[in-house]
Amino acid sequence: MNKMGIADHFVTERLPKPLSQFARTYPLVKLEVEVNSGIALMESLDAYRLNLVTANREDAKQRPGQLLFREALVWIASKDFELSGTASIPLVLSPAPCQFRREALVALEMRGKTWTTVYTGNSVPSIQAAVGGRSWRECSWPSLGASRNENIAAGFPEL
Question: In terms of Cα–Cα distance, which of 83, 74, 71, 80 is closest to 138?
Answer without folding.
Answer: 74
